[in-house]
Amino acid sequence: MRKFGNKIIVKLLGAVAISFLVSLGMMILIILFNVYLQKMNYLTELSIRSSYFMILLQYSAVILTFIAVFFIMARKKILYLKLITESVHDIANGRLGLTIRIESRDELTQLAQNINDMSKELEKKFEHERQLERSKSELISNVSHDLRTPLTSIIGYLDLLKKGQYDSKAQFQEYLETIDSKSQRLKYLIDELFEYTHLSSPNVKLTCKEADLSGLLEQIIGEYIPIFEKEQLSVQKSITEDNVPVLMDIEKMVRVYDNLFMNAIKYSMKPSELFISLEIIGDKAILRVSNKVENFEVNNINKLFERFFRGDQARTGQQGSGLGLAISKRIVELHNGKIHAEYREGWMSFIVEHPIDYGLWD
Ligand SMILES: Nc1ncnc2c1ncn2[C@@H]1O[C@H](COP(=O)(O)OP(=O)(O)OP(=O)(O)O)[C@@H](O)[C@H]1O
Ligand SMILES: [Mg+2]
């Protein structure tokens, strides 16, 4: 019943009925007035022309009453329709996200609601496109800057060799080695960049397999221990659980662990300790890698996961690309996991949450 009452046709019919009743009332008044005039013998004195004119006047008054009452009653709807038309015009002219106020529950309001939804959706899409465009151009400018540096020195050293501007065979060899190491760096940057853009594409596919996370980590850490020791990092490992079933693209996740351990080697204070632990909390397996750092200064620690972000000390070292953690984040998220960093009293920790799949080994 309520729904029926909200239909615009019902409202219009109601307005017609009320207008009709009011004009009927008006007609009755006019008839009564005519009867009164007749009683007073006033009408007989009028010429035929004048009486036709009076009838015309009275009919017009009735019709005008009908129109006026109908207009007053439908005015709100007409104004609302005008508002909708103007808003659609504004949206079409670029005011995306504009919304029309919602008044009642009839079809016009439904139309306004649909237009509002469309406008918000368009705004969201447009903003997303703009964001993509911005990050693409940012990526291009960062990449060109990072690729240009090694390429410039390769060109410079090759030029020296071409012009024979070296004093000895040893210097010749030294230049060649610089060219070699700069070319390796260029290749590394290009490979990382390729990996990042590949992982960022929306249709990237993982090749997931069942795996035991604790066994996998034990194995990787075992391989790293000689390197940690050589770098004066003494490892404190705590992997308590034996079988931790996870579904993962092992090759990709190993990249994440490699980057975490390599970062610990590159950016840790030496000599010092390195803590690695795997803990089970609920249905999550939590890997924590903590190392000691000196003068760590980043206002927002999440910045570390932005691509091309490199700390001051890392930038002077020229070893990495600043893409490692951005790639890791993407890989972990593709596995429905999470990665974040924490800094507390000189200790930097990277925490990776993996969803455990207990159903795997039932
Ligand atoms: N364990 C850590 N301790 C202290 N700082 C770190 C650590 N891991 C990363 N960082 C900081 O975060 C920055 C980003 O790390 P990320 O792994 O993304 O890049 P990278 O190591 O510089 O280069 P890439 O991994 O591509 O070779 C580093 O440059 C460093 O400043
Ligand atoms: Mg790294």
Commentary on this structure:
The chain is an alpha+beta fold and 362 residues long. The chain has three domains: 2-95, no CATH class; 132-200, Signal transduction histidine kinase, dimerisation/phosphotransfer (DHp) domain (Helix Hairpins, Orthogonal Bundle), CATH 1.10.287.130; 209-361, Histidine kinase-like ATPase, C-terminal domain (Heat Shock Protein 90, 2-Layer Sandwich), CATH 3.30.565.10. 61% of the residues lie in helices and 14% in strands. The chain is built from nine helices and seven strands, in the order αααααβαββαββααββ. It has helices spanning 2-5, 8-39, 48-92, 107-162, 169-200, 213-230, 250-267, 312-317, 324-334; strands at residues 209-212, 233-239, 245-248, 272-281, 284-292, 338-344, 347-355. The strands form two sheets. A five-stranded mixed sheet has the order 2-4-5-7-6. It starts with a helix and ends in a 7-residue tail after the last strand. The model has no long low-confidence stretch (mean pLDDT 91). Magnesium ion binds at residues 259, 262-263, 320, 324.
Q: What features would you highlight for this structure?
A:
single chain; 362 residues; alpha+beta; Helix Hairpins; Heat Shock Protein 90; five-stranded mixed beta sheet; two-stranded antiparallel ribbon; 9 helices; 61% helix; 14% strand; binds adenosine-5'-triphosphate; binds magnesium ion
